Amino acid sequence: MRSILWPIRMPLLLLSILVLAAKIIGARSLDVGTDTENYAELYRVIGGCMCLHEGFEPGFQYLTLMIAGLGFGTEFYFSAISLTLWALYMAYVTQLTQGSTLSKQDRSVLFYSIASALLCSPFFLSSHINILRQGIASVLLYMATLGFLRKQWTWFAISSALACAFHFSSGLYVLPCFLLALSFRRLVIFVFAGSVLYISGVTQIIVVFLAEQLGLSFLNAMLTYGAESEYQGGIRLDFLLFTWCAFGVMYALSRLVSESNLRIFIRENLKVYLVLMVPFVAFGYVGYSDRYLYPAWIFMSVILGLILFSSGRFRRFSKVILPIFLTLAMGSFLLPAIA
């Protein structure tokens, strides 16, 4: 009886959690999140004229236009954005498990494991509240990396273009995707060497020189972005150390995985994590440089979900553990939004 109810109970539980989370996120005060008021104003402007508005990427504006066409208020708008983000992650995880030898139930357990890990992530919460455009672009970038790894070039191109349409900075992640062709060891050495150059200030000298000599407007815009704010620019060793420490923990946990196919699968996604670090290594001294690490920080939850799933004991007792885990994860996800 339990095995019969499992495919029904778990999707209903997750759907209930996501709808409740989206409802609470949509009902948040406009002073929760530094950009919430700006997004609300964009929605009001686009809803008023039913046309695009300058200042935001076209993909996000078209999404806003479609939601505005339904005629509801800003609360519905933010809830719809949250549900859109979840729908994209569902599509990504489904794509992630395609072609695998996992059983249907194991694919479901993996899906719920990643969903639980995402709900526990403060960075993922930020993508629902403050960094809406980059949050949507990030999952599209994950789809692009998957397309590259599987040599699905059309999918890679489409996902990359969509990511750039939602956040222009996504272009900084598309080119480094070609580093995924390197072996795991060589990629670690490459990104570590880049990190050393970043800490030493060599990267900044090179980029400033190129901006001056080539007159590239986008480089000049990046270098001066946030210069008048109170944000602490320059070399952010704290961000870099946190990101590398997280990598070390995930790598150590991956070595404990006994099943070789799952271990290789996790190692492949650790390569994606490293590639997502490259834009920060290149431009992590500009204003609001933490934004260049958000895709990597959110992706940690995907890897941790994979590691959690790789535990045979966890999968054995998943019918008991996952409903409890999902419920507790929802609490940790919503508490900051409510507070």
What is the element layout, followed by pairings?
Blueprint: H1 2-26, H2 36-49, H3 58-68, H4 74-97, H5 104-119, H6 122-129, H7 132-149, H8 153-166, H9 171-174, H10 184-200, H11 202-214, H12 217-224, H13 237-254, H14 260-283, H15 294-309, H16 312-316, H17 318-338
Spell out the key features of this protein:
339 residues, 0% strand, mainly alpha, 17 helices
Q: Can you give a write-up of this model?
A:
It contains 17 helices and no strands. The protein has helices at residues 2-26, 36-49, 58-68, 74-97, 104-119, 122-129, 132-149, 153-166, 171-174, 184-200, 202-214, 217-224, 237-254, 260-283, 294-309, 312-316, 318-338. The longest helix is centred in the N-terminal third of the chain and has 25 residues, at 2-26. The chain is globular and about 60 Å long.
The mean pLDDT is 85
Give Rg in angstroms: 20 Å
Q: Low-confidence spans: pLDDT under 50, at least 5 residues?
A: 1-8
- The H-and-E topology, N to C, reads as HHHHHHHHHHHHHHHHH
Total DSSP E strands? 0
Helix content: over 70%
What is the distance, rounded to the nearest whole angstrom, between the alpha carbons of the first and last residues? Answer: 40 Å
- The backbone outline, from C-alpha atoms, is globular
Number of helices: 17
Structural category is mainly alpha
Give the strand content. under 5%
Largest sheet composition: none
Assembly category? single chain
